[in-house]
Specification:
Elements lengths: L11 E5 L7 E3 L12 E14 L11 E15 L11 H10 L8 E6 L5 E11 L11 E8 L4 E4 L2
Antiparallel strand pairs: 1-2, 1-5, 3-4, 4-7, 5-6, 6-7, 6-8
Length: 158
């Protein structure tokens, strides 16, 4: 089959439970998780650090080499909270708890996949929370940025 476009809403994102390593919790999207979807936007970003390798022999033309590659992924959407218990959506609660951790404890697993993928892309990552809020006629927003630490790995999807 020829490559074709796919829906961003059908991508899947999971965070590793910091208290139960090896247990993955899905962020609710159109296709992943259960019940009402919260995540409605994501953006994968690349970051490069390069070094200047220009010499007199470069004849006035800048020369550089990439020395470091980084990656992050932002998740945005609606904050989901159980009105009866006040409990936050499980994946969002884990992300918010993970963002408060420091040092070695700040790293946890994150994985994601596009529709049809047979493997997850897996990161050891840190979490930073973004803005939350809304106006008079809005639902409360939620956002987080996941920053990869080290290289990506893969794992088979069950």
């Amino acid at each position: 089959m020829a490559p074709r476009k796919y829906n961003a809403r059908d991508c899947e994102f999971e965070i590793e439970d910091l208290l139960n390593p090896g247990t993955w919790v899905a962020f609710r999207t159109a296709e992943a998780g259960s019940g009402e979807g919260g995540i409605n936007t994501f953006s994968r970003s690349y970051d490069y650090e390069s070094t200047d390798t220009t010499t007199f022999g470069s004849q006035g033309r800048a020369e550089t080499q990439n020395m470091q590659e980084g990656m992050s992924l932002s998740l945005e959407g609606f904050r989901l909270k159980d009105p009866a218990t006040g409990a936050l959506d499980p994946a969002m609660a884990l992300a918010e708890a993970q963002a408060r951790r420091l040092g070695n404890d700040s790293l946890c697993g994150f994985r994601f996949a596009a529709p049809g993928d047979t493997t997850w892309e897996v990161w050891q990552a840190t979490w930073q929370m973004g803005d939350q809020g809304g106006g008079n006629n809005d639902k409360v927003s939620w956002s987080a940025t996941v920053t990869r630490s080290g290289d990506s790995t893969t794992a088979a999807k069950a």
